[in-house]
Each structure stands twice: as structure tokens, then as C-alpha cells.
Specification:
Length: about 130
């Protein structure tokens, strides 16, 4: 596959941003194997979504934070980034991966349980990720 085709394939996927380095991904957010969570998420969706970890998403009270940004097709269908906080349970990670496998925001409805994790970040924080 050429570099141009590879870049286009990556751009056509959901992007999953996993906060790590501040409170998220450290012992400050107990009860979770942080490295295992990231590895499991990558294992479940790496072929269909871009998974990246970032140092901090500035939503400390919601540690561990995962943001699922829709694919271009999902965005066209009305999908918007979904911010999920307090993702400190392997089952929640699995539910997030299942939604991504089904198409992600705009193309697949989330499991009802994911509503418990959804939150709205401040405009400043949201803008920083979406730029």
C-alpha cells in the first residue's frame, strides 16, 4: 500500500484518545491496570481505529478519560466526539471497543451503560483536542 493510501485509510477511521500521564494512567486513579487497559483497547480496535495516548486531557476529576472521535463518515452522519470519564473498569473498555467496532459515533448507538461514563468537558479542553 502506498503512503498516500495508508494515510487515507488512517484518516477514514475513528480516533481514540486515551489520557495518560497526569491522574489518568497513574496510581492516582486506582483499581485499573492502566497499561493493560491501553493494550487491550489497541488489541481490540487497532485495525479499525487510530488509538493514541496523550499526556493529559485536563479533566482530572474524570480520570481515566477516553475520547472517541468519529470517522469522517460518522461526522457526516452527525457524530461528535464522545468524552468518557471514570473508565476504570475492563468491562467499560470492552463496551467502548464494541461501539467502535460497530462504527463509532454517528454510525452506531452506544451501549446504554456508556451513558454513565459520558461527560461534557470545558470548551477550552474540548477545543485543545479537536484542533
Amino acid at each position: 500500500m502506498s503512503r498516500r493510501k495508508a494515510a487515507a485509510a488512517v484518516a477514514a477511521r475513528c480516533t481514540v484518545t486515551v489520557c495518560r500521564g497526569c491522574c489518568c494512567g497513574t496510581p492516582k486513579a486506582p483499581g485499573m491496570g492502566h497499561a493493560a487497559q491501553l493494550a487491550e483497547l489497541k488489541a481490540q480496535v487497532a485495525t479499525i481505529a487510530q488509538v493514541r495516548d496523550v499526556n493529559c486531557l485536563d479533566a482530572y476529576e474524570q480520570a481515566n478519560v477516553i475520547v472517541v472521535q468519529p470517522s469522517p463518515a460518522g461526522r457526516t452522519a452527525g457524530g461528535r466526539p464522545v468524552w468518557l470519564g471514570l473508565v476504570n473498569d475492563p468491562d467499560a473498555t470492552g463496551d467502548i471497543a464494541a461501539r467502535i467496532r460497530a462504527g463509532g459515533p454517528g454510525l452506531a448507538e452506544p451501549a446504554d451503560i456508556l451513558d454513565l461514563y459520558a461527560f461534557d468537558p470545558s470548551r477550552r479542553v474540548r477545543r485543545a483536542l479537536e484542533d
